[in-house]
Amino acid sequence: MALPNFLSVLALFALLSVLINNGVEASHKIYHRYQSLSVDMVKQTHRTGYHFQPPKNWINDPNGPLYYKGLYHLFYQYNPEGAVWGNIVWAHSVSKDLINWESLEHAIYPSKWFDNYGCWSGSATILPNGEPVIFYTGIVDEKNTQVQNYAVPANSSDPYLREWVKPDDNPIVYPDRSVNATAFRDPTTAWLVDGYWRILIGSRRRHRGVAYLYRSWDFKKWVKAKHPLHSVQGTGMWECPDFFPVSMSKEDGLDTSVWGPNVRHVLKVSLDLTRYEYYTIGTYDKKKDRYYPDKTLVDGWAGLRYDYGNFYASKTFFDPSTNRRILWGWANESDAVQHDKNKGWAGIQLIPRRVWLDPSGKQLLQWPIAELEKLRSHNVQLSSQKLYQGYHVEVKGITAAQVDVDVTFSFPSLDKAEPFDPKWAKLDALDVCAQKGSKAQGGLGPFGLLTLASEKLEEFTPVFFRVFKASDKHKVLLCSDARSSSLGIGLYKPPFAGFVDVDLTDKKLTLRSLIDHSVVESFGAGGRTVITSRVYPTIAVFDKAHLFVFNNGSETVTVENLNAWSMKMPVMNVPMKS
Ligand code: DQQ
């Protein structure tokens, strides 16, 4: 996609806001009356079975994920008063396996002059003595002025880290006069290089997205560096920056402070204007404290994305117990605000993903954490199933509304791939998917899964590949198309899509989808391209939901192997007994 005209991006954003009317508001609202139904009235139809959700109310960004004394901790932005954004606190849950969660008291909530109007996103750092520290953004007034604060455990021998203290020397960082004080938030995990700690704070200078860098030698006094770590003209406010090292030779994750010859760095930013994220891989010059994205990568709107669908405000952390870097991301609702109020809840956290550098060095790979497989129960398989043009074959015998499905497709040749229209080179993958959906007959593809489908296909969310032949190589499109997902009204139903940079020499493509009532998370080609859709079927719910494999291309495609597992419900945010 060419750099979009700034006004058209704004117009698109305004349109989406009207359609969804569900973005995070620019100011912190305090509601005096409860805005949702009581929990026993919560309507469960579209609640997820194995995704992270509290029993009720609004959630957004994952905050400060960490591993401590045998437990994983997840904090997240939460409205204790209702199913819309507002009154934001850090809710807190703990888990032994990142799948079963117990909830604790809120960890951080407005209580001091430096956070009285909201406790916004931030990160955790594990100090060399093993103790955690949280950095978060405090809102200090009605004008939405933002400062950065820290909090420490009241009792660090408590593995549950139940109580957090905000020392009186807060805030640790004020916006100076050169900084936009209402666009200055979301501190990162700190990293230590050559005796100095560093953190980033997301911001903007006019239309330029900025990651300000602050340094400290004692972790208390933080001084702004002369230059930001990085900034990009025209990208608008950078929320929730994330900066971390990745190994060039191993899939293992690295602690955030690792720097060395075999290490690249990743900078991810969340673009407030469009509410999607992009990342680059590059070089961190620790002397200059500058980050240089690889020249071959797009550093802007059309950059690489963890997820080409509904995925925002993500954050990674290093898990020292398994040497993984794990990614958390939030998926907002795509229904109307009034629906959320009726449901009594809004927002989920997606299944945590392991992330590592592809051996090519050109992109990251992602895969759902292995612990998810503990929830797999009844399994059905298909193998050597030929899908001729127009075929759809049901995968029977599983709970299709709550399933993990992993499939390998093969095809005899690439000859029937449709030509890739050179005009599409300027388009976003989503626009190509909008033109070439699952129903339009193709050559090699569309083939894939029809998820959350009603028996007679009045509703379905197809997740599929289409292979095109461009002048120099084949282009593989992965779509997760919500346009037919529901007969309901007032829904945002985009044809999300991304291209997949994959070698087709073996004439195979793999797809794994995590389907869970109102979410479909799909990992194409082993996690090279990932897309999440939020959908709200009206017929295809509970045992009326079906799963099919399909092919609408003239080339016959074979399901080499398909495994689908009904998924059990984990313990999900049951309050921990004191
Ligand atoms: N959500 C938080 C902010 C952050 C935004 C407020 C991103 O700190 O910038 O709830 O979704």
From TrEMBL:
<dbReference type="InterPro" id="IPR023296">
    <property type="entry name" value="Glyco_hydro_beta-prop_sf"/>
</dbReference>
<dbReference type="InterPro" id="IPR050551">
    <property type="entry name" value="Fructan_Metab_Enzymes"/>
</dbReference>
<dbReference type="GO" id="GO:0005773">
    <property type="term" value="C:vacuole"/>
</dbReference>
<dbReference type="Pfam" id="PF00251">
    <property type="entry name" value="Glyco_hydro_32N"/>
</dbReference>
<feature type="domain" description="Glycosyl hydrolase family 32 N-terminal">
    <location>
        <begin position="51"/>
        <end position="368"/>
    </location>
</feature>
<keyword id="KW-0378">Hydrolase</keyword>
<feature type="signal peptide">
    <location>
        <begin position="1"/>
        <end position="26"/>
    </location>
</feature>
<feature type="domain" description="Glycosyl hydrolase family 32 C-terminal">
    <location>
        <begin position="371"/>
        <end position="566"/>
    </location>
</feature>
<dbReference type="InterPro" id="IPR018053">
    <property type="entry name" value="Glyco_hydro_32_AS"/>
</dbReference>
<keyword id="KW-0326">Glycosidase</keyword>
<keyword id="KW-0926">Vacuole</keyword>
<protein>
    <recommendedName>
        <fullName>Beta-fructofuranosidase</fullName>
    </recommendedName>
</protein>
<comment type="similarity">
    <text>Belongs to the glycosyl hydrolase 32 family.</text>
</comment>
<dbReference type="InterPro" id="IPR013148">
    <property type="entry name" value="Glyco_hydro_32_N"/>
</dbReference>
<dbReference type="InterPro" id="IPR013189">
    <property type="entry name" value="Glyco_hydro_32_C"/>
</dbReference>
<dbReference type="InterPro" id="IPR013320">
    <property type="entry name" value="ConA-like_dom_sf"/>
</dbReference>
<dbReference type="GO" id="GO:0004564">
    <property type="term" value="F:beta-fructofuranosidase activity"/>
</dbReference>
<dbReference type="Pfam" id="PF08244">
    <property type="entry name" value="Glyco_hydro_32C"/>
</dbReference>
<dbReference type="GO" id="GO:0005975">
    <property type="term" value="P:carbohydrate metabolic process"/>
</dbReference>
<dbReference type="InterPro" id="IPR001362">
    <property type="entry name" value="Glyco_hydro_32"/>
</dbReference>
<keyword id="KW-0732">Signal</keyword>
